[in-house]
Amino acid sequence: MVYLIPEFLLVLVGAVGLVIAFAPSRPRLRAYSLVGGLTCFGGAVVAGYLAYLATTDLGAELAATAPGYLTTTLALDPFSRVFAVLSLIVCGLTFLLSKEYLETRMQDHQPELLAVIAFAAAGMSFLGSARELITIWFSIELLSVCGYVLAAFTKDDERSAEAALKYFILGTASSAFMLFGLSYVYGMTGRLDLVGIMEATAGDGIGVLLPTAAVLMLVGFGFKVAMVPFHMWCPDVYEGAPTPVTAFLSVGPKLAALAALARVFSTAFPHEVARVAWEGVLFWGALITMTLGNVVAIKQSNIKRMLAYSSIAHAGYMLVAVLVTLRSDLALSALAIYAFAYVFMNLGAFAVVTSFSNRTGSDALHSYNGLARRSPYLAWAWAFFALTLVGLPPTAGFLGKAYIIMAAWDAGATWNSPMFWLLVVLVLNSAISLAYYMGVAGRMFFKPPAHDDPVPVGGGVGTAIGLCLAGTLLMVLAAGPIIGAIQNGAVFALH
Amino acid sequence: METLVFFGLAVPILVLAVVVVTTPHILRAVVSLFLALVGVAGLFFLMRAPILGVMQLMIYAGGVVVLFAFAVMLVRRVTGEFVRQQTGLAGPALVVGLLFFVVLMGIGSGYLAGLEDEAAAAGSVHPVSRDLAERLVLTDVPEEIDPVEDFSPVMIRDYVIPFEIASILLLVAMIGAVLVGHPLEQKHPGGEIEPEEPAEEGEGA
Question: How far apart are the C-alpha atoms of A419 and A319, rounded to whole Å?
């Protein structure tokens, strides 16, 4: 039971939001976003302890004596609790960075928006630890339905309504594909748990139906991750949705789906035929996703669209880590480290965008001209997040990318092998991304502003930016211990 | 006999499903959908899954479609109105759909044929099912299964966590439905800061 504290906390925070929604008032909303955010950060500490506990003997003992309904549906391993930490951090940061937006840009239903974000974070946490098909299906649906609701919150804005409808229709279609794949897997093996599926497909003669089912499942996950060619919804939804929601959608569903992808495919389909299929699809998927995301991002004139394509590119990088889960012990650690860095740098960048658009009402790139003079805090924060997102050496982004490259190298990327060229493309892509991230920073520092009005930063969103800065910096400072912990053995063995 | 009943159900279901997507008459589509879903319930009964059959009747045929019918008849005063798709993508959609069907059928029937060959080689009398049972590792399944009695403990004991996740999911879906369905109270331009906002903010502090 102790293992479920993170999920309980998230559902509780959401439920409190629904109670507040009956009689919303400004002080109550303010208190809710602050207390809810702090609860999430507190929960993150607890979840972090649980993740540590799961690596010890005591944790193994606890897991062995856990009740059956827990062990059949959820994996109680360090990897799952690390994603619980991540869900809580994402939820807490989103609460903080939403506060000002909700107060200035939304007329009503503000507590509901936060509550749905908390429920979505719970879904994220469940998805990261689900170890059988029914739980995977329900968590991914919880996450998706929350996403549809969140995207539709500003339905009076025509573009937002259109984006929400697009998201809903494409999302349900991809869910249908995934369910189709799940039903085939169950029909062929008669098993729901991932380990059981692996055991039942161990022999040969399973034929091509299993890889087909795996690829169908990949369609569903690919949509949530925004893997090309299932990324079409991404820029429109990110542009149309309220900015704090965009911030959440760009990290929450994506990371949870990546974690589930790594767990499902490495646990259930490690045998030859299916493995060749999904590794092949993921290889090309990762390659095209990161390239397309970066190349198209250069041409964008709206900062939310630009960040949408940038988040597609980052999904491509993380897919490389997923791709090598079966070949390298480092892969899951690389995925987790990159996920943490991505949460801090991407939410940080979105917090800057939220803070700016709260005051100016604009998301156009040219309105960022000369921001360094109007708000030095935002401009310097952006510059820092941009460097981190590119992955230049002393930043957390570099740590993440370096680990992904090391994992791929460990998986046997020799000179001139396909994996080697994938890594070359990854590094080239990082160089391309320098153009648009630093392009915005260049506008902020070197172009003259249209006018000199200062852009004040609200308390909540300013704190969120600060926390993201602190998070990325801490990751760099703690790089030594992190690397040590990973080298001390397979910390992230899936149970 | 079973084969006869299966095709007796499957063919009408397919025909009705085609009618659902092709007819421009919205009420006719709803009725066809209703009948198709009842037919699917029949398939579940045929496969000895009475729980699923009853659920299908209660939830889809009984609940969802009736809701559709209500929505159609209440919202549009003119229920006879014709609705046409305007994307002009019916042709490509048909091609892609058929292609998907052919590929899946090919792969699926290949899989089943492989199973039967294997079973025949092993000298089994009842080819597919015996081999499937072996493959499914179903050795510990009891002889007699009472689908109704054995269903509930599995659902609310072993799978209580997905069960609870589903309840949160429904809650969120309900919030979403209320939010989306709720009429707009006042018209205000999206993406712009309301002029009266700063005053309100001072009052809140």
Answer: 13
Q: Which domain holds residue B69?
A: 1-87
On whether residue A235 sits in a domain, the answer given is: yes
Structure tokens at B155: 């659902």
Number of domains in chain B: 3
- Window 340-379 of A: residues touching B by CB (8 A cutoff) are 361
pLDDT tens digits, residue range A301-340?
999 999 999 999 999 999 999 999 888 888 888 899 999 9
Of B38, B57, B87, which residue is a domain's last? B87
**Residue B138: its pLDDT value, please?**
46
Identify the pLDDT of residue B82: 62
Q: What is the reported pLDDT for B120?
A: 66
Asked if B124 and B51 sit in the same domain, the reply is no
> Has residue B87 got a pLDDT over 80?
no
On average, the pLDDT of chain B sits at 75
Does A457 contact chain B (CB < 8 Å)? no
Residue A74: beta bridge partners? A130
The answer to whether the CB atoms of B118 and A205 lie below 8 A apart is yes
| Judgement on whether residues B68 and B94 belong to the same structural domain of the protein | no
- Residues of chain A under the 70 pLDDT cut: 1, 204-206, 486-495
For residue A105, give the nearest of B157, B179, B193 by CB distance: B193
Inter-residue contact A155 to B180 (CB < 8 Å): yes
Q: Is B154 within the bounds of a domain?
A: no
CA A278 → CA A120, A198, A266, A282, distances in Å?
27, 14, 10, 6
Please tell me the distance from the alpha carbon of residue B86 to that of residue B107, in angstroms, as a whole number.
34
Q: Is B176 on the interface with A (CB under 8 A)?
A: yes
In which domain, by residue range, is A270 found?
Answer: 2-489
Instruction: Name the pLDDT band for B14 (thresholds 50, 70, 90).
Output: very high
What mean pLDDT comes out for the span B71-100? 73
The residue whose two tokens read 């707009």 is B184
Cα distances from B78 to residues A415, B65, B83, in angstroms, run: 69, 19, 12
Dist CA B113 CA A299 (whole Å)? 52
Query: What's the complex ipTM?
Result: 0.90
Cis peptide, bond prior to residue A6, ω within 30 of zero: no
In 3D space, the residue among A280, A283, A317, A303 whose CA is nearest the CA of residue A432 turns out to be A317
pLDDT in tens, A29-76: 889 999 999 999 999 999 988 888 887 888 778 878 888 888 888 988
Number of residues that make up chain A: 495
Q: Residue A257: CA atoms inside 13 Å, Cβ hemisphere, count?
A: 28
Q: Do B191 and A212 touch (CB under 8 A)?
A: no
**B127 to chain A, minimum CA–CA distance in Å?**
15
Hey, is B104 helix, strand or coil?
helix
8 A C-beta contact, residue A118 and residue A166: no
- Distance in angstroms (rounded) separating the CA atoms of residues A216 and A211: 9
Nearest of B179, B165, B173, B161 to residue A122 by alpha carbon: B165
Instruction: Look at B190 and A190 and tell me if their CB atoms are within 8 Å.
Output: no
* Domain assignment of residue B153, yes or no: no
Closest by Cα among A126, A189, A116 to A147: A116
Mark yes or no for CB contact A138/B162 under 8 Å: yes
Residue A385 near residue A378, CB atoms below 8 Å: no
Q: Residue B11: what pLDDT?
A: 94
The secondary structure of B14-30, three-state, reads HHHHHHHHHCCEHHHHH
CA B13 to chain centre: 14
Please state the rounded mean pLDDT for residues B129-155: 59
